[in-house]
From TrEMBL, chain A:
It is found in: Cell membrane. This is Nucleoside ABC transporter membrane protein. Pfam families: BPD_transp_2. GO terms for cellular component: plasma membrane. Keywords: Cell membrane, Membrane, Transmembrane, Transmembrane helix. The chain crosses the membrane at residues 66-85, 92-114, 151-168, 202-222, 228-245, 278-296. One of its GO terms (molecular function) is transmembrane transporter activity. Its main location: membrane.
UniProtKB/TrEMBL annotation, chain B:
Residues 6-243, 260-505 form the ABC transporter domain. It is found in: Cell membrane. GO terms for molecular function: ATP binding; ATP hydrolysis activity. SMART domains: AAA. It holds the Pfam family ABC_tran. Keywords: ATP-binding, Cell membrane, Membrane, Nucleotide-binding, Repeat, Translocase, Transport. The lineage of its organism: Bacteria, Bacillati, Bacillota, Clostridia, Peptostreptococcales. It is a peripheral membrane protein. SUPFAM superfamilies: P-loop containing nucleoside triphosphate hydrolases. This is Nucleoside ABC transporter ATP-binding protein.
Length: 301, 509
């Protein structure tokens, strides 16, 4: 039974399940660096997932779906920014509000636009294409693990590098980190910390929108109610575990993806799904516990 | 006559509840060192922020290099050649020195990337030109405050400043670092043709460094004088508006037994590093033991450990012969210890509660204020609060006023009123006059001495060397968590003690 679970397919699944986490976490860590704790990623992903399906269905193009998802994410990011940065509301409250709003909005739109309850799937939804690399065809396990994935899996890896370069190699990255660490300092050198916070919030919305579109058009080809299923929060855990560093966060997201995939594989060998579905969340709590314990030990209390 | 590089005409700044600057007109000449002095809340910082463009004045006009300022913003001021070194350094702790200096106007490669190598070269050449040595690749969080201040000055010079505004630049420096800073300022002005505006409340420094002094009181400009023509006493009177008697205090010799003994204390800081590395000392009855040291050398952790607010890793604390190691704050208080914490707003007071309630804290179960440990006797408590408000000269319209609306000095008096009224034999006093004006400082010092003369054993921790020297009977210096020296007051000068505060024994210098 063990080799039914722990095999190459598990690793292949890990890469698939980690991708929405990676995309959302990349957005979230930008806001984290800019000094905003964004717990609204969950809702941003859900809205992205819905508008991805909507765009793909109506325009008959996956690209249109992705663009619409990005646009919807951008809008939510803007709303988040206006409330937390401009009106100085509590980040937590606004994050929760966005999550609740996203749940309600998608259910409402699902009924009023598609006239269905619970889930919407249709052959008219164009999924995101898979990418095939002929070069690694013959490379055995590498081919199994890395080849023939949905396009955003590969794009997410490139984005990790891009975000890393942005944060640590460009002046804008310095400004964004400065905006979080010492906003007054940034202001006195003539760069608006508010502007950097806005940019981070908008980018976070876009990244979460893509994560959602990948979920509903790449990972699956349908929309179901609450399909983000806690991924926004797990992404947040990955950011915390990865200390907001894009490379480490990428690693943390892969780890959480692994547990998600493990849950799915265990279900395949007949372990009760009520239990296997708990695995990614238990793993998240466990990892956060370790992070928190490390901090407490250092405080000496 | 020399060129007027900055000129203010009838500048006023109204904040929602207070008129911070009231119709101020002054001018600063090119190439002079201009000092602005005043008590806390006199409006110095507001005035400076207006010059730097962080505020827009409610009314009045500001001219820089003869040009009237229309839009107030720091980036415009930087373009006009004004640089500001803030009291609380504007540096990002996790960035390197070079990264901090170029922040906001980074040298670039291929237009979008920041060119780290060039930044390091720029900093090196700035260091050479101005004689301000720094390691461009060191992180801000790893260097001393003296170096951080150098970085701040380099930052303004990198941006091309020829007018430097320094806000309380010596507050965190040792006497040696202060001397070094003054040399730099003099060189900037005399050799490199810069103009320096310095804001401070330390009058002796004003007299050493400045050419002219502007004195502010309660938002108004009281006078502008030539430094040559005044002395400390005249300035103090202008600042406070009445005669100030910070004279030597009468301290009769008291021979008392040992009350507190601290042995080989090791305590960790919030990051988990050792903040105290084996500290030992004792305090006798009727004695003030002053702890001198630059902030962040273990002083905060020391008071917290003694007050029971921080875990003691190794070592022992004996209070009146009882081993009180590991006692919680309540038990320590029961042994007869009162504590004036360093940050009154974090651990000293509840801002949103009334003066009465703040004074009650710690006495809420006393039989005279509380029936059956359940029912507070409000009338008695109110009378008690009224009595203390009067005794400790808290300036407030009523005892029901929320503490948060009082001035810093009056807040501190509330803490002192409460803690001094427990009638304990041991006092832990940390930064008793931080952010408190001269008038209140006088009063607080008198109260501390009174307690000493009554026979209290007092531990006094202060960042102000003057205060340590004025009040203490004995002084220990703390550097990187270790006691580096112990002296009877009078045995050592402020200048000499500076060496011990930086870990250099006198003979090594």
């Amino acid at each position: 039974m063990l080799h039914d679970v722990f095999n190459l397919t598990l690793l292949q699944n890990t890469i698939r399940t980690a991708t929405p986490l990676i995309l959302a976490a990349l957005g979230g860590l930008l806001t984290m660096h800019a000094g905003i704790l964004n717990i609204g990623m969950e809702g941003m992903i859900l809205i992205g997932a819905f508008f991805g399906v909507l765009g793909s269905y109506y325009f008959g193009s996956a690209l249109a779906g992705v663009l619409l998802a990005m646009l919807s994410g951008l809008l939510i990011g803007l709303i988040f920014g206006v409330f937390t940065i401009e009106l100085k509301s509590d980040e937590f409250i606004i994050g929760i509000a966005i999550n609740i709003f996203a749940g309600g909005l998608t259910v409402f739109l699902l009924r009023s636009i598609f006239g269905v309850k619970g889930a919407f799937s249709s052959p008219k939804i164009v999924p995101l294409p898979d990418v095939h690399f002929p070069i690694i065809d013959k490379l055995g396990f590498l081919d199994v693990i890395f080849n023939n994935h949905s396009v955003f899996i590969y794009i997410s890896w490139i984005l990790v590098i891009c975000v890393y370069i942005f944060l640590y190699k460009t002046p804008y990255g310095y400004w964004m980190r400065g905006a979080g660490e010492h906003p007054e300092c940034l202001e006195t050198v003539g760069v608006s910390p508010k502007r950097m916070k806005y940019i981070s919030s908008l980018l976070c919305g876009i990244f979460c929108g893509i994560a959602g579109a990948h979920l509903s058009l790449g990972y699956l080809t349908l929309f179901t109610e609450n399909m983000s299923a806690g991924r926004g929060f797990i992404a947040l855990a990955a950011i915390i575990f990865g200390a907001s560093n894009p490379i480490k966060t990428f690693g943390a997201a892969l780890l959480f993806g692994f547990f998600d995939a493990l849950g799915i594989r265990l279900q395949g060998v007949g372990i009760a799904s009520q239990f296997t579905q708990m695995i990614p969340y238990l793993a998240t709590i466990f990892v956060l516990f370790i992070v928190a314990k490390g901090k407490l030990n250092r405080k000496g209390i | 006559m020399s060129e007027r590089i900055i000129e203010l005409k009838n500048v006023s700044k109204q904040f929602p509840s207070v008129l911070a600057n009231d119709n101020i007109s002054l001018h600063i000449n090119k190439g002079e060192i201009y000092a602005i002095v005043g008590e806390n809340g006199a409006g110095k910082s507001t005035l400076m922020k207006t010059m730097y463009g962080l505020h827009e004045p409610t009314s009045g006009e500001v001219y820089i290099k003869g040009e009237k300022i229309k839009s107030f913003s720091p980036s415009n001021s930087i373009k006009r050649g004004i640089g500001m070194v803030h009291q609380h350094f504007m540096l990002v702790p996790s960035f390197t020195i070079a990264e901090n200096i170029v922040l906001g106007s980074e040298p670039r490669s291929k237009r979008i990337f920041s060119d780290k190598k060039k930044a390091v070269d720029i900093v090196k050449s700035l260091s050479r030109t101005y004689g301000l040595e720094v390691d461009p690749n060191a992180k801000i969080q790893d260097v001393s405050v003296g170096i951080q201040q150098r970085v701040e000055i380099l930052k303004t010079l990198y941006k091309g400043a020829d007018i430097l505004i320094l806000d309380e630049p010596t507050a965190v420096l040792t006497p040696q670092e202060t001397e070094e800073l003054f040399k730099v300022i003099k060189r900037l002005v005399n050799e490199l043709d810069k103009t320096v505006i310095i804001i401070t409340h330390k009058l002796n420094e004003v007299l050493t460094i400045s050419d002219r002094v502007a004195v502010m009181r309660q938002g108004k400009l009281v006078d502008v004088v030539n430094t040559r023509e005044v002395n400390e006493k005249i300035l103090a009177e202008l600042m406070v508006g009445r005669e100030v008697l910070l004279e030597d205090i009468d301290k009769p010799e008291i021979k008392g037994e040992e009350v507190v003994r601290v042995k080989d204390l090791v305590v960790k800081d919030n990051r988990g590093f050792d903040a105290l590395k084996g500290v030992s000392f004792h305090i006798n009855k009727g004695e003030i033991l002053g702890v001198a040291g630059i902030e962040g050398n273990g002083q905060s952790e020391l008071t917290e450990a003694l007050a029971g607010m921080r875990k003691i890793e190794v070592g022992h604390v004996f209070i009146k012969g009882i081993d009180a190691t590991g006692f919680n704050p309540k038990k320590i208080r029961e042994l007869g210890v009162a504590h004036i914490p360093e940050d009154r707003l974090v651990t000293g007071l509840s801002k949103v509660s009334s003066i009465t309630d703040n004074i009650l804290m710690g006495s809420q179960f006393k039989e005279e204020f509380c029936k059956n440990k359940l029912h507070l006797k409000r009338d008695k408590i109110r009378d008690y609060a009224k009595k203390l408000i009067k005794k400790f000269d808290v300036r407030t319209p009523s005892e029901d006023v929320k503490v948060g609306s009082l001035s810093g000095g009056n807040m501190q008096k509330v803490v002192i009123a409460r803690e001094f009224s427990f009638n304990t034999e041991i006092l832990l006093i940390s930064q008793p006059t931080r952010g408190v004006d001269i008038g209140a400082i006088e009063f607080i010092h008198d109260q501390i001495i009174k307690k000493r003369n009554e026979g209290c054993a007092i531990l006094l921790i202060s960042a102000e060397l003057d205060e340590i020297f004025r009040l203490s009977d004995r002084i220990i210096t703390l550097y990187e968590g270790k006691v580096t020296g112990e002296f009877k007051n009078g045995e050592i000068t402020k200048n000499e003690i500076g060496y011990y505060m930086t870990g250099n024994r006198k003979e090594q210098v």
